[in-house]
């Protein structure tokens, strides 16, 4: 004997052709409470915690010191902090994300993009 999700009992052989299903629940001609069987809503609780402002490492502080009122190119900053331009761009991107540096250029691949200290 088999009892389906609706509480109906069934005797006999079961196969996919003879037993109608909805979402895997067996149906035997009775209406089912789909909200109970297949909930479509769920609740999520998110907890947030305040975190202190992250400190700057010496290279990032040197980058901020290298930025003038007229801005600076990536290559100019890279020479001052003695890193490659790629590593400098990565550090500048993080500083832009944190809101410490602004960038001004025609696009993301603009070689003349200048970086300014955020006020």
Q: What would you say this structure looks like, in words?
A:
This protein has helices at 34-37, 58-66, 74-81, 85-97, and strands at 2-3, 9-10, 21-22, 25-26, 101-104, 114-117. With 119 residues, it is of the alpha+beta class. The strands form three sheets. The chain has a two-stranded antiparallel ribbon with strand order 1-2. A two-stranded antiparallel sheet has the order 3-4. The chain has a two-stranded antiparallel sheet with strand order 5-6. The longest helix is centred in the C-terminal third of the chain and has 13 residues, at 85-97. The mean pLDDT is 77.
Spell out the key features of this protein.
6 strands, alpha+beta, elongated, 119 residues, two-stranded antiparallel sheet
């Amino acid at each position: 004997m088999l009892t389906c999700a609706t509480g109906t009992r069934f005797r006999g052989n079961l196969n996919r052709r003879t037993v109608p299903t909805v979402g895997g629940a067996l149906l035997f001609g009775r209406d089912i409470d789909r909200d109970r069987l297949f909930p479509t809503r769920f609740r999520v609780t998110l907890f947030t915690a305040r975190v202190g402002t992250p400190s700057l490492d010496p290279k990032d502080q040197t980058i901020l010191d290298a930025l003038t009122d007229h801005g600076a190119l990536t290559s100019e900053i890279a020479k001052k902090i003695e890193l490659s331009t790629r590593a400098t761009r990565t550090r500048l991107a993080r500083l832009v994300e944190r809101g410490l540096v602004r960038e001004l250029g025609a696009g993301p691949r603009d070689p003349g993009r200048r970086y300014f200290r955020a006020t």
